[in-house]
Predict the 3D structure of the following.
Amino acid sequence: MEQGLRPEERPAARATTRLLVVALDELAGPELLAELRRRLPEEAPAEVMVIAPAVEQTVFRHALGDVDSATREAKQRLQTSLEQLEQGGIHALGEVGDSDPVIAAQDALREFLADEVLFVAHAESEARWFENGLFERAREELRPAVRMIEVSHEDGDPAPHVAGVEESGPGRRPAPSTRRELSLSANLPRFDRGDLVGIVIAILGTIVTAVLAATGPPSDSAGGAAQILIAIAVALINLAHVVGLLLFESVHYRGGFQRFFRNLSMTATPLAILVVGAISLLD
């Protein structure tokens, strides 16, 4: 506190700017570091937190829960990012986050109340499976202002280049939810209509596939064996989808894993019915 000044003459305390950076690529290179510095005030204090989501490279590895390699890659990405930021004059803390970048940001915001969430992701030409629709999801589900810096890599240059910036605007709040939830029982989680339709399709599709396989060619024939294998595969897929919704919805069963099994169930079930039915007709 400055002495000899009346309260109205004392300079106002400078508010600390808090920036949460979700790094899906290494924070390196002069272009990206310059873009990050633009987000920080020159004279006012600032705090930066970097989250490196432990994202799997492929949907298949994500479905298998291959977290070890994803965590190792995220730790390396985080360490390199923090070193590059420090060299560029930006002090930051960091940690590895959830495999879903939006959930990773939500987890971090519980402890680090950021003024802005900044995603560093790949440009459309280099985007990985989990980056599709990422900006739209983030600005709908996160409370602070959301921005995304898209980076690309040129041949022979390991440092990323800024390909574009998307902004949600300061102070944006999540749009009202369009999910209309229904509860079948007080003992069951609440579902939206899409979840209920998916459960019905999964159950009925499994039954239809099993009946077609049971009434088709003998199991010792090639067609009969194929039908049984298809019926078993569909039953396992739908079982994972339905059990996931029934058991884990209460703990916000959302993200890439949920979307993967939902899409797989909704696609594989009608396709399996057609294939098993076609085998029965041909044999």
Residues 222-248 form the longest helix (27 residues).
